[in-house]
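User: Hello, can you help with two protein structures?

Assistant: Certainly.
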Amino acid sequence: MAKKRIVVLYGGMADEHPISCISAASVLRAIDMERYEVIPVGITRKGQWIVDGEDPKAWKLGTSDLPSVEITKNSRPVLLDPALGCDGFFAGEHEDLKNPANGYGTNFVSMSGIDPEKHNVVCSLGHVDAVFPVLHGPFGEDGTVQGLFEMMKVPYVGCGVLASSVCMDKHFTKILLQAAGIDVAPWITLDTREFDSDSAFERNAMDILAQVQRAELAYPLFIKPSRAGSSFGVTKVESGDGADARSQLAGAVFEASRHDWKVLIEEGIDGREIECAVLRDVPAEQTRTSLPGEVVLDSRSHGDDDAFYDFDSKYMDESASHVEVPASLPQEILERVRTVAGKSFDAVDGMGLSRVDTFVRPDGSVMVNEINTMPGFTSISMYPKAWEATGIPYSKLITMLIDGVLSN
């Protein structure tokens, strides 16, 4: 049987760029090379699509420098012709990466609009059967690249345009889940475009605090960008008391606004953070859920009760936390988490895969925090570990996701 040709897409313009690189490295090391011919396509931070750059399989966690897709002397620009669909993937010459005046170096161009004399510097990458977009954050996990592949009629792994865009925006995730009768943490949303300068955040500190008080949000508060992932721009504010409480809150809003003008102020929940992997690789089949897991912050075991799962804990310091699957909870509560996770995934019209992050409160009730439509695939990520504990090994999981979209 001929191998299916799969583009693995990684990098991107979001803050999560290096995490996408590491996730893609893990996928490329684990993918079944006897079944698939893989074409790694990197996206630089500036949005240039390239092939033949640095081999991503060598990237891993635990190094001092996070990986990045860079233009090398051997890399070539990737050009897309949407009208040609699965046959619309091309590569140009290296020098054209520096010559955007000819249409190269952009996300996609139409071959029909290029001078015929230029065709000799463009070669087809061949028929592409499917794309695995291992992209995190904006411009990759938010429905934008999904819309591109929908337009090209190219099968791709993961959620569609609606679910991707809704779940990328924490505000609208909450709105949709509430409409489905699913409990979410109380919050307010700020439009920081109203602040015309950095100093405007401090000048409006009283108003920000007043909005928190009117919403009766209980401390601690978590201030976060609405459309960012991997804990970028997230700040914990412990108390509204004290002379500098307003300044701390305003500073936290400013920090979040550096990643997104839409900022959430969310009530901290007294509960354990329990995550559940969700899988629906074939549309006709029912949504499946893994054994729920818990990321245990090892710093808390050393007396740091204020620690939370920030960027460094997730990706930079393997000793900062570890994953426990299943989470140490009664079976009844674990099943409740799985039920809520599956219901949440279906409520946002999920497809392929997602990780549903929940809070389990002391009374056993379950509240959804957020849904990640392209969860991390690194060696310490919850999603693959949860499925391994549930009986689906990492390599088989990748095969199921790819074969699922090929069967549609």
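That covers the first. Now for the second protein you mentioned:
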Amino acid sequence: MKVENLKDLDLNRLVRKSYGDDEELEARTAAIIKGVQANGDEEIYRLTEKYDHVNLRLQGLRVSPQEIKDAYQEVSEDFLGALRKAKKNILSFHEKQKRTSWLEPDTDGSMLGQLLLPLKRVGIYVPGGTASYPSSVLMNALPAVVAGVQKIVMVSPPRKDGTLLPEVLVAADEAGVTEVYKVGGAQGIAALAYGTETIQPVDKITGPGNIYVTLAKKKVFGTVDIDMLAGPSEILILADESALPQELAADLLSQAEHDRLASAILVSPSRELLEQTIAAVERQLEDLPRAEIARASWDTYGAAVLVPDLQAGMDLANKIAPEHFELVVKDPYSWLGQVHNVGAVFLGRYSSEPVGDYFAGPNHVLPTGGSARFYSPLNVDMFMKKVSVIGYSEAALKRDAQEIALLARSEGLEAHARAVEIRFKD
């Protein structure tokens, strides 16, 4: 890794799509979805055996209450305590997002307003297998709980023994998930969208997964709503000479270890800081358990970018629109007004990215691949729908009828005009 000058930077390497554009993968995903639509549970069993090497026909797809009860015996009290503190913080943050319905009466007797209603049934996807993501369970389920969703359905791929990780099951129970199923991949998304004999369809699907999960969400959108098309994890750090290289290196690697395709970028006007951080990354990679993954990410999609000043660095950050943006500068709050295109911003050296991933309260399901230009983190509003309320009085319609009819006829829609005028014909 070498320091790159801003004018020589290849932005195409750093600004990537959130999902693949691979026709072969899309065709495979579509075939999986069609198979689930046609054959329901049997196709789920077949694909789970093929991809996860687990035969679930005898024990079934749904996690039993006993399995959840047993999971509590397999986790430590320390884990449970930390999970519950994180849950409290996440709930507290998301409760501040909740809005209420409103109705506004007029003096002419009419009433306009908006109903805010929770979705009835949502599905959350949680990656599984050998990995454990209890934090993803909390981040996906708790905003739905705050919104008032009645049924929260979780799918996650099973381990080789046909079980889900105990930490994930405990998190699901603590977060208020009402149904849990042992199914992952594109088939899990298809089951949530279209239903099977065992799994009833949902209204919306949230949660990140691999490329097949992402392409499946893309495919079923319209049948159900989705949160976003999530891509590999990203972090961009804008730092000045006050930052410590070892801390910056640790934060960069915290995202690089996620995925070989993850992106970790450091931007600074200080060449010395950039070079020292590169050296610190190399040292920390030596004993990192996921060093092979982090190394591939750092070598392929990592960058250390020298900019003329912090303003140029801020402009670059807004252009790249990273998922996670750390401002490790002397006075980070003074720059907050210039933050526009990021998923989440972390202010100062003590706001390390994992603080947001696990504990602080804001949601860690964030837009990737440049979609922070127009998309938001997962939030309570995403689990609600809005219904417009129109209650016109006779006086109001009489006052507005002529203009309504005129606008309808300007569009060539005579029946629209007559539907208003007929009420006053006699």
